[in-house]
Amino acid sequence: MAGVKALVSLSFSGALGLTFLLLGCALEQYGVYWPLFVLMFYVISPLPYFIANRCGDDTDSSSNTCRELSHFLTTGIVISAYGLPVVLARTEVIRWGACGLVMAGNSVIFLTILGFFLVFGGSDDFSWEQW
């Protein structure tokens, strides 16, 4: 039952993050849909972790090059997701209010992705590999 509660809370927080993102695009005073390009970052942010789990060895050593590279690439993707709205706002493509809403959406979505991997990423009986 704990897995169902976690899944429901993660889906709620994901919907909340996407609501912030869509409000930053669709409100009448903003009305520009350029911030939706951060959806691309949401999709590709877990890919380095998946690749590192497939390619890396499962030793318990403190240093694993493949895992460290995946953390580095994931960090670059997340920082790019936060940088895109700032660049769009600085070039006056979007307004600063829309930038703030997109930043709030980024924070909620990336915390949801992190929560997903913390809850379902373990090697216990209930993991994401079953899905």
UniProtKB/TrEMBL annotation:
Alphabetically ordered keywords of this record: Endosome, Golgi apparatus, Membrane, Receptor, Transmembrane, Transmembrane helix
Bilayer topology: Multi-pass membrane protein
A GO biological-process term: late endosome to vacuole transport via multivesicular body sorting pathway
UniProt key word Cell division: no
One Pfam family matching this protein: Vps55
Taxonomic superkingdom: Eukaryota
Chain ranges passing through the membrane: 6-25, 32-51, 71-89, 101-121
Subcellular location: Endosome membrane; Golgi apparatus membrane
Main location: membrane
InterPro entries: Vps55/LEPROT
Cellular component GO terms held in the UniProt record: endosome membrane; Golgi membrane
Protein family: Belongs to the OB-RGRP/VPS55 family.
Protein name according to UniProt: Leptin receptor gene-related protein
